[in-house]
């Protein structure tokens, strides 16, 4: 199991392109295999990770994840292919549906038929990322185009954030894997992996890649740290798709699926994730106490 780093899940007014590049260079120097950026209200994740990829030599850079509704699939494909060029073939595109409160209330777009929206979107996006033409006419999306980003790596790896059974089937049949958040190890082992793997198998596709994001804090104050995480990540426990995964896990809130504790506890948690079928654990580092972020980063580096 690979261990990468994820950023952007927590608002950071100090975030900058230079900061992402510096982080990417530091992670590469430490031996981490990947850096992922959540596309929320800050920098565009595709652009930021493309720049970070341009300034590194080996690091995989990716989005975890970019919402699809604000961009036509041809536009996102064009952007992702260009990002692949900038990152010299080390860019991975993770996409998702976001949430009704964001898409409808904030952006004024439709959140109706989410699984169908993703399925039709991928009918255009996926072939374009493979360097093929995309001729498709659906109820929601239409396209008859071939792109000419000829210096991009093909295919650009594609992950789909998938939690519900319909979305897991879409991810298994039309993408290379899934990117998870707020999903515990038991749920991954007993529900996520079997469901997406079955869909991929039926479609004749390789075993899907399972990328799972978790808050990670190395600390001796487990109770106090979980209380702080509960406050920092409270909104995630209120979003229906994440709430369903927390309920399935038997978790009261986001803090209960975070990886928190001393070295032995974190080692045990990582072992459990590996056994659950996770291919990449991507850690969100939180400064819940002075020095926690750096201490946790160094611990994870020692486990690469």
Would you kindly provide a written description of the structure presented here, covering whatever features stand out?
- This protein has 304 residues and is of the alpha/beta class.
- The protein has one domain (2-222, 260-302): Luciferase-like domain (TIM Barrel).
- Helices cover 44% and strands 19% of the residues.
- It contains 11 helices and 12 strands.
- The protein has helices spanning 17-30, 45-54, 73-86, 100-106, 114-129, 165-174, 185-202, 222-232, 240-249, 263-276, 292-302; strands at 2-7, 34-37, 60-63, 66-67, 91-96, 134-137, 142-145, 158-160, 177-181, 209-218, 259-261, 280-285.
- Strands 1, 2, 3, 4, 5, 8, 9, 10, 11 and 12 form a 10-stranded parallel sheet that branches. A two-stranded antiparallel sheet has the order 6-7.
- Helix 7 links the parallel strand 9 (177-181) and strand 10.
- The model has no long low-confidence stretch (mean pLDDT 97).
